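All the exercises in this workshop are built on plain-text protein records. The record below serves as our worked example for the rest of this section.
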Amino acid sequence: MRMPFTSLTFKLFFVCLIFVFSVVLVLFQMSSSVLKQEVRSGNDLFIQQMLSKVDQYISLSFSSLETVLYAVEASYSDSKSLSEDIQPILRKLYSMNAGSVAEVYLISGNSSMIGGSPRSILFNEPDQERQRLFEMVMDNKNSIYFSPPYYSRQHGWTVTMAKYIAGSSPPLAAALDIDLTEIEKSLLLSTPTIRCSSPSWIPPGSWWPGI
């Protein structure tokens, strides 16, 4: 008498079971691979759309901030007093852009400054780092200078924009400090799925000028 597991029927059953299991496994792997590819493609498209929106937001923000520098330049006149005539304009420009700008100010040749924020009076004395910024602006009088991101003790992560005031005598530079923390908050409100972080490769206390 033959044992059940040695019969032809059992062998066929076992072979069919292995075949079905293999087919199911192959189909599962194929469907999993296709699903992962679809998810990856969807994520890539979503990220591209978000990055495009972020790029548009940053471009608009910087274009808007450039107009602040041109407004400072337009308000300048040799016949105007910096403290009595220009500083009120700086204060108004600062208050209008306080959500993204940490300071709006004028830099003179000796690196002293006149600013629009209430705390500017605490940092208006000549400053070596501000002197470097002034020299860079003087070397690029026909364009707006953008500093690399740096860590300011007063504002945290900051980028400074500055330009030469055409026709100023003695030479002056208009500058503003962009508060990157506030820019990040605005981006998170408009694109809540994106998390921005401060660049870890830039050490705190970087020399780049801020007030």
Summary: Confidence is low (pLDDT under 50) at residues 192-211. DSSP finds four helices and six strands in the chain. The radius of gyration is 31 Å. The longest helix spans residues 8-75.
